[in-house]
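Researcher: I'd like a candidate sequence for this fold, 157 residues long. If you have to choose between options at a position, lean toward the conservative one.
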């Protein structure tokens, strides 16, 4: 089982999540996902220090990539079920973000052709996240992809 926020019901209802958004699998919603993560940093005043400001930028980038992957997987499969993004601040100051979609298949790191305009999202996540993974044992069909970011020890929260 992947590290997950407690969920209830038929869909990924993020009980205990610090922020969540359920949206149709349409690329226009990826911007809202980025803004939600950015707002979370601002709201909890965690982005005051330089290290956490950088963490916020990384979180926004990786959220954009993960949400785009879920939307793309859904579109490719003809899946119209909603995508859910949720995040939680962990006790030690780390941020974990989950993106759940109902599309079949699993995310994987690929090496796209140099001239390709797509296919680098998982490379970025693998390079920048402290931890990441997916699980298939969530509520309903599809998968829950997650990544975690941690600020460097000794930096101000």
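Model: Candidate sequence:
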């Amino acid at each position: 089982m992947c590290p997950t926020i407690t969920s209830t019901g038929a869909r990924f209802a993020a009980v205990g999540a610090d922020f969540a958004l359920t949206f149709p699998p349409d690329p226009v919603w990826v911007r809202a996902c980025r803004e939600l993560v950015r707002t979370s940093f601002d709201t909890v005043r965690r982005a005051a220090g330089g290290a956490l400001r950088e963490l916020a930028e990384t979180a926004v980038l990786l959220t954009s990539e993960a949400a785009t992957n879920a939307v793309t997987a859904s579109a490719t499969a003809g899946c119209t079920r909603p995508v859910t993004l949720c995040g939680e601040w962990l006790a030690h100051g780390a941020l974990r973000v989950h993106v759940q979609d109902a599309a079949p298949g699993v995310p994987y790191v690929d090496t796209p052709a140099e001239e390709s305009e797509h296919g680098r999202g998982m490379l970025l996540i693998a390079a920048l996240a402290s931890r990441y993974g997916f699980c298939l044992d969530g509520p309903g069909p599809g998968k829950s992809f997650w990544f975690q970011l941690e600020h460097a020890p000794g930096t101000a929260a």
